[in-house]
Amino acid sequence: MRERSFKLFKDYSLGIMNGIKEICYLDRMSDRDSLAVLYATPDLAMAKYILNVQNGQDIGPLISIYLSNIEVAKEQTMNGYGTLNIADEDAYKTMRSPQICTLVFRSTIICNNETEGDILQAQLIMGMPFNHNYYFMVDGQYACCYAENSENASSVEPGNSTDKINRRTCDIRIPRAYLEYPVYEIKSYIKEFNLTYNLIEGAEPEKDNQSNLISSYR
User: Fold this and answer.
1) What 3-state class would DSSP assign to 135?
2) In a designed cystine with 153, which of 60, 102, 129, 167 is the match (CB 3.0 to 4.6 A)?
């Protein structure tokens, strides 16, 4: 039976979101205006931020991430491990080798002023540097990530109130992640064959003639 649950990098996304919550902090934040971290595109995150402003809420900064790119590492593909078959007393499982990928998450920081944006962006760069990756665990293995390509995405042109919201962006890269295939499981299969044969009297096979031996057994 094919496994129905299939999670596409969900654990990696949660690991990065937990890392952002651990790294980023502003001294002025209270319980009412704490940092919000969510998985969303920049447009959806901006819409949520503006909605909170229109509702008169005391809002704090918001950081959103989404999976922007999947790069397949062809030189790291497990060609020697195509399919792994495992049999036990109750089932027979078939597992394909995972695809090894590089994941790129795009993070967007939305905040009230430029200073807050600079601080939060600097915290991400310092908390997830290239020379000392931030790491977390996925299925008992280490997953490392680092921040790069930081950019000030705030609008410098005069406009309406939505244009005055300050934004920062950067990429969070996981250089090695695993795209796993579903596991096939067969719970009923033929384990062995029981064969019997009878020799007809006077039809003794020749020991040194393999074809005669087979035909006689038939």
Assistant:
1) strand
2) 167
